C-alpha cells in the first residue's frame, strides 16, 4: 500500500466524498464521523508524505502506469508535501468546527468539503499542466458550492462575482495551456521545462504569451492587485468553516506561480528566465499597499480578516518576486503561519458573532459576551500573530521576509511591509478594544459555544506559538525546500531519466 | 543555565496567577511573587562571578535562518536593570495587592504584570538583536493590556491604543534598524555587534540605521515628539503607572541606547540628535509638569522630563556622562516609583487626583506626607538625596561637553532651566497636596492606608536617602559594573556628596532659588499660559486615526467598486497586456508550416462562425435571438471538428451544445423581462475595444500556434492506443486511459456543478411572470401534443443510440461522455414535453446518487488496479469469445466509461430538475430541506398552477 501513498491525498477525499454525497439528507452523525475521520486520516497521510519528502528525494506516481511525459504523474517533493500538510491541518480545524452545526445549515456540506480538499490536494500534487487545470476546476466549483452553503443574499452576490470571474479565469487557463502546448508540444511540466530550455528563438514569443497569460490566471486565484476584487466580499460572506478552508485557496495560486515558474523558467530557460518576476514583484507591492488600506477601512471583523488575508497574499507574492532561495524559504514559513492563523481567525470571528447576537462581527459597541474572556484571549493571540508582532509566528515570518530582501528590494519592501504591519496593528487593536472592551453594560448575551468550535479555533491558532517554538526545524525544512526548488534538475531527472535533451 | 532560568522564571510566572486566582487574593499575590523573587535571588547570586570579571553568557541556537539564538547575557547593565525590574516589580505586586478593589479580577492583572516583567527581563538580558526585538514588542503588548485593564473606561481604552500604536510603530522601525545593524555588523550576536562599532560607523547605511533604531528608542522612552502617549497611559491603574511608566518600560528606550552605545554612538550625528532631542524633551516635560493639575499628570510629565535628562547624558556620551545616566536611571526609578505609589495611595484614600480637591492632607496622612515629601525632595535634587548626586553630575557634564560646538554654552543654561522647573513642580506637588489648605472637599474622607500598602514606598524612600547619604558605599559597585558594560573598560570614579564649591553647585543653588520663586509666582505663569489653547493629544490622535479610516474607506471603495463588469474588465485587460507582450515578441506570425489550402466550404464555415459570434454580441439585448446566434457558433464549431476529422469532438460538441442550449433556455425564462439600462456610449466603445483587441490577440496567437509544426507527444498516443490501451479510438483511449485521471476529475466537476446548482436554486423562489415583456400571455397549450408524442417515441430510440455509442466508444467515435449526453437530451425532451411533474412521477429516483455512483464506479475501477499491484487507474483488457457472438473485447476502461456515463446523466438531470422547480411555491425558507428529495419537491410542485 505504501507505494500508493502519494495518490492517497486525492483518493481519500474522493472516496469520502462519494460516501458522503450518496445520500443528501439525514445521517448527520454518520456524515460527521466519516468526514472527520477522512480528514484526520488525510492529516496522517500528509505527515507520512512529509517525512518521505524530507529525505530530499523526489518521488512520483504514474497514474494508469503511463510514464511521464505521456501519462499524468503526481509528484511529491518537499514543496508539495508541505502544502498538503498545511491543507490537512487547516482542514481538521475547519471540519471539526463545522460539526458544531454549520454543516447542517445547508445540504451536502461534508461531501463538498471533501471534494474541495480533493481539488486542493490534486493541484498541489500534479506534475501536469492540464491536470492542474482540472483540479483548479474541481476546487473552483466545490468552493463555489461551499460559498453558497447556508444561503443568504450577501453570499449569493459574492458567489456570483466569484464564480463568474473564476470561470473567465478558467477559460483563460485553457487558452494559455493551449498556447504552451502548441509551442512546446507537451503538458508535463518537467518535460516542458526541458523543451523551454531548448526552445527555438522564434517560439519564445509564444511561450511568453502563454506563460504570462497563465500568470494572470494564477494571479486571479492568488488575488493579486487588479484581480483581487472578488476576495474580500467572498471571504467575508462565506460560512466560517468554509472561509477558514479558503485560507488555503489563495495559496493554491501562489503555489502554482512558485511551482510553474521556478520549474519552467529557472536558470536554464535562457532569455525566458524569470519572465514573471518583475510583474509579480511590483504587483505584489501594490497589493500590499491596497491591502493595508483595506485593513484600515474594514468596519467588520470578517472583512478585516479578509483584508489580512490579502496582506498575506501581497507578502507572499513579494517573496516570489524577490526570487531568491532565501526569499522562498521565508515565504514558505510565512505561508504556513498565515494560512493557519487567518483560518483560525475566520472561525473565531464566527464564534464572536454568535455571542454578540445582533451586533455580529460589525465593529460597533455591543453586548458583553458570555465567554468573552476566552474569546478575547484567543483573539489576542490571533491578532498578534497575524499582525506580525512578537512573540508569535507572524513576527518571525515578517523578520524572515524583511531579511530576505536584498539591495534595492529593501527600499520598497521594508516600508510597505512595516507600514501594513502598523496598519494591521492599529486596526486589530481598534477591533479588539471595540469587541471586548467597549461593551454596553448590562445583559450578557449569547449562550456558551460548542466544544467543537473551541477545538477548531484553538487547533488552528496554536500554530502561532508552535511555529515559534519549532522555528528551527520548520525554517530548515523551508530552506531545504527553497533549495530544492532552485534546482529543478533533480525533479526533472527523476521524472524523465531518459530525457535526451539535457536541460543544463 | 542560571541565566536561562532568570529569564524564564518570570515568563513561567504568567501562569501562576492564572492557576492560583481562585484560591484567594493573598495566596495568589504570594504565589505570584515567588518566581520573580527567585529570579532576583539568582541574579544576585551571579554578582560575585560578575565581579570576578566572568563573561556570563547563555546561548542555544534557535533559528539559524534568521540568526535568531536563544541567547542571554548578564553584565553590569543587565544587572542594574534586572535589579530594578525584579526589585521594584516585587514591591509593585505587594502594592497592587492592596490597591486593586475587591471585585476586580486580580489574577488577570498579575498575569499581565508578570508578562510585562518577563519581557523587560528579556530585553535586559538578550544577547541577540532579534531576540531583543521580540521582547521589546512584547513590552508594548503587555503595556497595552495593562493600560486597558479598566477596559470599561474610554480613556483607558484610548490610552492603551495610543500607547500601542506609538510604541508599536517604533518597534517596527526598530526591527528594520536592528536588521540593518546586524547586516552591517555581520552578526546578530550582541557581543559581535558591540565589538564592530568601527565597521558600523563607516557603513553608508549608518544614518538610516541610526534613525530607525532611535525611532524605536524615542517612542518607547517618550522622547519629544513622541512623548504624547505617556500622559494618556496614566489611565492605567497606579501600580502600572509606577512600574511601567516610570521605573521600567519607558527606560527600555534608554536601555537600548545604553546597550548599543559602543556600537552606534560614536558619531557626531548621534551626539547632536540624541542630546538635542533629550534637552527638548526635558524642558517640555518639565514645563507641562508644572502646568498639570492632575497628580498623575504631573508625575507623567516629570517622567518625560527626567527621561529627557538621561537621554541628554547618553547623547553627550563621555564616560562620566554615561555614568551619570546610569546613576540617574537608578535614582529616578526609586524616587519616581515611590512618588507614583504615593499618588496612588492618595487617590485610593481620597478618591481624587485633582490638585484643587486635594490639600492639607498632612493631618490625615502624616506618614504618607513625609514619604512623599522625601521622594519629591529627591526628585527636586535636594542635597543628601540620591537625585542631587546624579543631577550634579549632569550639570558637570553639561559644562564639560563640546557636543553642540559653538553653542555648547547653551547646554548648561538649559540644564539649569530644567533644574529650576524640576524644583518648582516638585515643590508644587508636595505643597499643594499636603500643606496648602484644600479648596474643595475630596470625595472620600482621607486616612492612612494599610501599613503594608505603604511598605513599598517606605523601602524606596529609604533607598533614596541611604544612597544620597552613602553613595560610595551603596552604588559604586553596581555602577562600576554597569558603566564597564556600556563603556567597555573599567571607569575610575568616586561618588561623593561634597565636591567643594564649584559651578555645578552654584547651578543647583540657582535652580533652588529661582525654582522656589517660580512656584511662588506660579499662578501668574499659569494665567499667562492659559491664554493659549491647549492641544489634547488624544483627541488629535483619535481624529487622525478616524480620518485615516474614513479616507481608506473611500479609497478602497473607489478602487474596488462593487461591479462585476469592472472586475471582469480588469481580468481581460490583464490578459490582453500579457498576451500582447508575448505577441509583439513574435517576429514572424506565420510559422514554418505555413497556411493550409482554403476551399469554399471552409470559407463559408468561417464566415458563419464569425457571423454567429458578432451576432451573439450584437443582439445581446434580445436574449432569445442572442442565444440562437450562440448556438450557430456551437454548431459550426462542431462542423469544424468534423471537417478536420475529429468525429469524437464533433459528436461531443454537438451534444454539449444541445444540452447547454436547452438549459440556457430554461434559465432564460427566469431572467427579468426587461434588460437593464444601456451603458454609456463611451463605455460601450471602451468595452468593444477591450474585447475586440483581446479577441485579435488570442486569434493571432492561435494562428501562430497553428502555423507551426507541433513537436508534440501525440504520436505516442496514436502508436500506443491499441497495444497499450486496447482501443482503436485514440481520443477515447486518451479520455479513459492515458488521461483517465483528468476525466475522473472532470466528472467530479460535473457532479459538483449539479450539487452547486442545487444549493443555489434550492432556496431560490422566483416570480413567474404570466406573460412576456410585451404583455403577451404565454400559450395555454403547455404540453403540445406533437412534442409529447415525438418525445415519447424518441426516448427508447435515443436510449438505444446512446447504448450503441457507449459500447462502440473504445474503438469507434463515441464513449461514455457522448452517450451520457444523448441520454440526458432524450430525458430533457421528455421533461419539456410532459412537464417536470409528469416526468418525475415516472423517473421516481433522486438524481444525486446517480451522479455520485458514476464517480464511484470510475473511482472503484481505478482502485481495482491496486489489487493487481498497479498504480491507480491502470487499465486492463482482454479478448473473450462466446458462442454465437464471437470474439469480443472486455476492458476495464469500459467500466470507467460507465462511470462517466452515469455521472453525466445524473449531473445533467440534477441541474434540469432543479431549474424546473424554481418556481415551486412550497419552497423551504432555509436550505435545510428536511425530507424532500428532488422528486418529492417536484411532485409537490405539480399541484401548483404553472
Q: Ranges of chain A with pLDDT <50 over ≥5 residues?
A: none
Overall pLDDT metric of chain B: 87
Radius of gyration of chain B: 43 Å
Q: So what's the overall shape of chain A?
A: globular
Backbone structural class of chain B:
mainly alpha
What's the gyration radius of chain A in Å?
22 Å
Q: Main sheet of chain B, how many strands, which sense, barrel? A: 2 strands, antiparallel
Helix content range of chain A: over 70%
Strand content of chain B: under 5%
Subunit organisation of the chains: heterodimer
InterPro entries (chain A): CPA3_Na-H_Antiporter_D, NADH_UbQ_OxRdtase, ND/Mrp_TM
Domain NADH:quinone oxidoreductase/Mrp antiporter transmembrane (chain A): 127-420
Family (chain A): Belongs to the CPA3 antiporters (TC 2.A.63) subunit D family.
Membrane topology (chain A): Multi-pass membrane protein
Task: Give me a quick take on this structure.
The complex is a heterodimer of chains A (504) and B (946). Chain A is mostly helical and 504 residues long.
Descriptive report:
The complex is a heterodimer of chains A (504) and B (946). Chain A has 504 residues and is mainly alpha-helical. Chain A has a domain of 210 residues. Chain A contains 21 helices and two strands. A two-stranded antiparallel sheet of chain A has the order 1-2. In chain A, helix 1 packs antiparallel against helix 2 and helix 10 packs antiparallel against helix 14. The radius of gyration of chain A is 22 Å and the shape is globular. With 946 residues, chain B is mainly α. Among the domains of chain B are: 75 residues; 193 residues, no CATH class. A two-stranded antiparallel ribbon of chain B has the order 1-2. In chain B, strands 3-4 form a two-stranded antiparallel ribbon. In chain B, helix 34 runs parallel beside helix 38 and helix 37 runs antiparallel to helix 38. The longest helix of chain B is centred in the N-terminal third of the chain and has 32 residues. Chain B is elongated. The C terminus of chain B is likely disordered. At the A-B interface, helix 1, helix 4, helix 5, helix 6 and helix 8 of A face strand 1, helix 7, helix 8, helix 26 and helix 27 of B.
Amino acid at each position: 500500500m505504501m507505494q500508493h501513498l502519494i495518490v492517497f491525498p486525492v483518493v481519500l477525499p474522493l472516496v469520502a466524498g462519494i460516501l458522503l454525497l450518496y445520500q443528501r439528507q439525514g445521517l448527520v452523525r454518520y456524515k460527521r464521523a466519516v468526514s472527520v475521520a477522512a480528514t484526520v486520516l488525510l492529516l496522517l497521510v500528509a505527515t507520512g508524505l512529509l517525512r518521505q519528502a524530507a529525505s530530499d528525494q523526489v518521488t512520483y506516481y504514474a497514474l494508469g502506469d503511463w510514464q511521464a511525459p505521456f501519462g499524468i504523474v503526481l509528484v511529491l517533493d518537499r514543496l508539495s508535501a508541505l502544502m498538503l500538510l498545511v491543507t490537512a491541518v487547516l482542514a481538521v480545524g475547519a471540519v471539526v468546527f463545522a460539526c458544531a452545526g454549520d454543516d447542517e445549515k445547508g445540504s451536502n456540506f461534508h461531501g463538498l468539503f471533501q471534494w474541495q480538499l480533493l481539488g486542493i490536494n490534486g493541484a498541489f500534487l500534479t506534475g501536469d499542466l492540464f491536470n492542474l487545470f482540472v483540479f483548479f476546476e474541481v476546487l473552483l466549483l466545490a468552493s463555489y458550492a461551499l460559498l453558497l452553503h447556508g444561503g443568504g443574499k450577501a453570499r449569493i452576490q459574492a458567489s456570483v462575482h466569484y464564480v463568474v470571474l473564476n470561470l473567465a479565469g478558467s477559460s483563460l487557463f485553457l487558452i494559455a495551456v493551449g498556447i504552451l502546448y502548441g509551442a512546446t508540444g507537451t503538458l508535463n511540466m518537467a518535460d516542458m521545462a526541458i523543451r523551454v530550455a531548448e526552445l527555438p528563438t522564434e517560439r519564445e514569443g509564444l511561450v511568453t504569451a502563454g506563460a504570462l497569460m497563465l500568470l494572470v490566471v494564477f494571479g486571479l486565484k492568488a488575488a493579486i492587485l487588479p484581480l483581487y476584487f472578488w476576495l474580500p466580499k467572498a471571504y467575508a460572506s462565506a460560512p466560517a468553516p468554509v472561509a477558514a478552508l479558503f485560507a488555503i485557496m489563495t495559496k493554491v495560486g501562489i503555489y502554482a506561480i512558485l511551482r510553474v515558474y521556478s520549474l519552467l523558467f529557472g536558470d536554464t530557460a535562457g532569455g525566458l528566465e524569470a519572465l514573471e518576476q518583475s510583474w509579480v514583484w511590483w504587483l505584489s507591492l501594490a497589493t500590499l499597499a491596497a491591502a493595508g488600506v483595506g485593513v484600515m477601512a474594514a468596519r467588520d471583523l470578517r472583512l478585516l480578516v479578509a483584508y489580512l488575508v490579502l496582506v498575506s497574499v501581497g507578502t507572499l507574492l513579494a517573496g516570489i518576486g524577490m526570487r531568491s532561495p532565501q526569499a522562498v524559504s521565508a515565504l514558505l514559513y510565512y505561508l504556513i503561519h498565515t494560512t493557519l492563523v487567518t483560518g483560525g481567525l475566520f472561525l473565531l470571528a464566527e464564534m464572536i458573532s454568535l455571542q454578540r447576537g445582533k451586533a455580529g462581527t460589525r465593529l460597533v459597541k455591543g453586548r458583553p459576551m458570555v465567554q468573552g474572556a476566552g474569546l478575547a484571549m484567543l483573539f489576542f493571540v490571533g491578532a498578534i500573530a497575524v499582525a506580525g508582532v512578537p512573540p508569535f509566528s507572524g513576527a518571525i515570518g515578517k523578520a524572515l521576509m524583511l531579511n530576505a530582501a536584498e539591495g534595492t528590494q529593501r527600499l520598497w519592501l521594508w516600508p510597505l511591509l512595516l507600514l501594513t504591519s502598523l496598519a494591521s496593528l492599529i486596526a486589530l487593536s481598534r477591533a479588539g478594544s471595540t469587541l471586548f472592551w467597549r461593551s454596553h453594560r448590562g445583559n450578557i448575551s449569547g449562550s456558551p459555544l460548542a466544544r467543537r468550535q473551541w477545538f477548531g479555533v484553538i487547533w488552528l491558532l496554536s500554530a502561532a506559538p508552535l511555529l515559534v517554538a519549532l522555528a528551527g526545524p520548520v525554517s530548515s525544512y523551508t530552506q531545504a525546500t527553497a533549495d530544492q526548488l532552485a534546482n529543478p534538475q533533480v525533479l526533472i531527472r527523476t521524472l524523465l531519466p531518459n530525457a535526451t535533451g539535457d536541460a543544463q | 543555565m542560571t541565566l536561562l532560568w532568570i529569564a524564564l522564571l518570570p515568563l513561567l510566572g504568567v501562569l501562576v496567577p492564572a492557576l492560583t486566582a481562585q484560591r484567594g487574593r493573598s495566596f495568589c499575590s504570594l504565589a505570584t511573587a515567588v518566581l520573580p523573587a527567585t529570579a532576583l535571588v539568582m541574579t544576585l547570586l551571579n554578582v560575585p562571578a560578575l565581579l570576578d570579571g566572568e563573561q556570563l553568557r547563555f546561548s542555544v541556537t534557535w533559528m539559524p535562518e534568521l540568526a535568531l539564538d536563544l541567547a542571554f547575557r548578564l553584565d553590569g547593565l543587565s544587572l542594574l536593570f534586572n535589579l530594578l525590574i525584579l526589585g521594584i516589580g516585587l514591591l509593585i505586586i505587594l502594592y497592587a495587592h492592596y490597591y486593586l478593589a475587591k471585585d476586580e479580577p486580580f489574577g488577570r492583572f498579575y498575569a499581565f504584570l508578570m508578562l510585562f516583567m518577563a519581557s523587560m527581563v528579556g530585553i535586559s538580558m538578550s544577547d541577540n538583536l532579534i531576540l531583543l526585538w521580540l521582547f521589546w514588542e512584547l513590552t508594548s503588548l503587555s503595556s497595552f493590556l495593562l493600560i486597558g485593564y479598566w477596559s470599561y473606561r474610554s480613556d483607558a481604552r484610548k490610552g492603551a491604543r495610543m500607547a500601542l500604536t506609538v510604541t508599536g510603530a517604533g518597534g517596527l522601525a526598530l526591527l528594520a534598524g536592528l536588521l540593518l545593524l546586524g547586516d552591517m555588523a555581520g552578526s546578530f550576536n550582541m557581543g559581535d555587534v558591540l565589538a564592530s562599532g568601527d565597521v558600523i560607523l563607516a557603513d553608508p547605511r549608518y544614518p538610516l540605521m541610526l534613525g530607525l533604531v532611535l525611532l524605536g528608542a524615542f517612542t518607547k522612552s517618550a522622547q519629544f515628539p513622541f512623548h504624547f502617549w505617556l500622559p494618556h497611559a496614566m489611565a492605567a491603574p497606579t501600580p502600572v503607572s509606577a512600574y511601567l511608566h516610570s521605573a521600567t518600560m519607558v527606560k527600555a528606550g534608554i536601555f537600548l541606547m545604553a546597550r548599543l552605545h559602543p556600537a552606534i554612538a560614536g558619531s557626531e550625528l548621534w551626539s547632536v540628535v540624541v542630546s538635542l532631542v533629550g534637552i527638548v524633551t526635558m524642558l517640555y516635560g518639565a514645563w507641562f509638569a508644572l502646568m498639570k493639575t492632575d497628580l498623575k499628570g504631573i508625575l507623567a510629565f516629570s517622567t518625560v522630563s527626567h527621561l529627557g535628562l538621561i537621554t541628554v547624558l547618553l547623547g553627550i556620551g563621555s564616560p562620566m556622562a554615561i555614568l551619570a545616566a546610569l546613576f540617574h536611571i537608578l535614582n529616578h526609578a526609586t524616587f519616581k516609583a515611590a512618588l507614583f505609589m504615593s499618588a496612588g495611595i492618595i487617590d485610593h484614600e481620597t478618591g481624587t487626583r485633582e490638585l484643587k480637591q486635594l490639600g492639607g492632607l498632612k493631618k490625615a496622612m502624616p506618614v504618607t506626607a513625609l514619604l512623599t515629601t522625601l521622594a519629591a525632595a529627591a526628585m527636586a535634587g535636594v542635597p543628601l538625596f540620591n537625585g542631587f548626586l546624579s543631577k550634579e553630575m549632569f550639570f558637570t557634564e553639561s559644562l564639560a561637553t563640546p557636543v553642540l560646538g559653538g553653542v555648547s554654552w547653551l547646554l548648561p543654561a538649559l540644564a539649569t532651566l530644567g533644574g529650576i522647573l524640576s524644583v518648582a513642580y516638585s515643590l508644587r506637588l508636595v505643597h499643594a497636596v499636603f500643606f496648602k489648605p484644600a479648596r474643595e472637599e475630596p470625595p472620600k474622607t482621607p486616612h492612612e492606608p494599610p501599613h503594608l500598602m505603604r511598605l513599598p514606598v517606605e523601602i524606596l524612600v529609604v533607598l533614596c536617602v541611604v544612597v544620597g547619604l552613602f553613595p560610595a558605599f551603596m552604588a559604586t559597585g553596581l555602577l562600576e559594573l554597569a558603566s564597564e558594560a556600556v563603556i567597555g573598560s573599567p571607569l575610575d570614579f568616586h561618588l561623593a556628596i561634597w565636591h567643594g564649591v564649584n559651578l555645578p553647585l552654584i547651578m543647583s543653588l540657582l535652580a533652588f532659588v529661582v525654582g522656589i520663586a517660580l512656584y511662588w509666582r506660579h499662578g501668574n505663569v499659569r494665567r499667562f499660559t492659559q491664554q493659549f489653547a491647549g492641544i489634547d493629544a488624544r483627541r488629535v490622535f483619535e481624529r487622525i486615526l478616524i480620518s485615516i479610516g474614513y479616507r481608506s474607506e473611500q479609497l478602497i471603495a473607489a478602487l474596488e467598486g462593487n461591479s462585476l463588469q469592472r472586475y471582469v474588465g480588469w481580468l481581460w485587460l490583464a490578459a490582453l497586456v500579457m498576451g500582447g507582450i508575448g505577441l509583439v515578441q513574435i517576429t514572424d506570425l506565420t510559422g514554418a508550416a505555413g497556411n493550409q489550402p482554403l476551399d469554399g466550404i471552409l470559407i463559408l464555415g468561417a464566415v458563419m462562425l464569425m457571423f454567429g459570434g458578432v451576432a451573439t454580441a450584437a443582439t445581446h439585448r434580445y436574449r432569445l435571438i442572442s442565444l440562437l446566434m450562440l448556438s450557430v457558433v456551437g454548431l459550426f464549431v462542431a462542423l469544424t471538428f468534423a471537417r478536420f476529422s475529429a468525429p469524437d469532438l464533433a459528436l461531443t460538441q454537438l451534444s454539449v451544445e444541445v444540452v447547454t442550449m436547452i438549459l440556457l433556455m430554461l434559465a432564460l425564462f427566469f431572467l427579468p423581462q426587461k434588460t437593464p439600462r444601456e451603458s454609456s456610449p463611451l463605455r460601450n466603445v471602451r468595452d468593444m475595444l477591450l474585447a475586440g483587441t483581446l479577441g485579435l490577440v488570442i486569434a493571432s496567437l492561435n494562428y501562430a500556434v497553428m502555423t507551426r509544426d507541433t513537436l508534440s507527444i501525440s504520436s505516442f498516443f496514436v502508436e500506443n492506443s491499441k497495444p497499450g490501451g486496447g482501443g482503436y479510438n485514440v481520443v477515447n483511449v486518451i479520455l479513459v486511459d492515458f488521461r483517465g485521471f483528468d476525466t475522473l476529475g472532470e466528472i467530479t466537476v460535473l457532479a459538483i456543478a449539479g450539487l452547486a446548482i442545487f444549493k443555489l436554486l434550492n432556496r431560490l423562489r422566483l416570480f413567474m411572470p404570466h406573460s412576456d415583456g410585451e404583455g403577451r400571455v404565454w400559450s395555454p397549450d403547455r404540453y403540445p401534443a406533437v412534442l409529447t408524442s415525438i418525445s415519447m417515441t424518441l426516448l427508447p430510440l435515443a436510449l438505444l443510440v446512446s447504448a450503441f455509442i457507449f459500447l462502440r466508444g473504445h474503438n469507434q467515435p463515441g464513449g461514455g461522455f457522448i452517450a451520457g449526453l444523448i441520454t440526458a437530451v432524450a430525458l430533457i425532451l421528455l421533461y419539456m414535453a410532459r412537464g417536470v411533474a409528469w416526468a418525475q412521477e415516472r423517473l421516481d429516483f433522486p438524481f444525486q446518487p446517480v451522479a455520485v455512483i458514476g464517480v464511484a464506479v470510475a473511482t472503484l475501477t481505478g482502485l481495482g488496479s491496486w489489487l493487481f499491484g498497479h498504480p491507480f487507474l491502470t487499465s486492463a483488457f482482454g479478448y473473450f469469445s462466446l458462442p454465437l457472438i464471437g470474439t469480443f473485447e472486455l476492458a476495464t476502461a469500459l467500466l470507467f466509461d460507465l462511470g462517466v456515463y452515469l455521472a453525466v446523466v445524473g449531473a445533467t438531470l440534477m441541474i434540469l430538475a432543479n431549474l424546473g422547480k424554481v418556481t415551486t411555491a412550497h419552497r423551504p425558507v432555509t436550505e435545510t430541506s428536511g425530507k424532500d428529495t428532488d422528486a418529492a419537491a417536484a411532485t409537490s410542485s405539480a399541484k401548483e398552477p404553472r
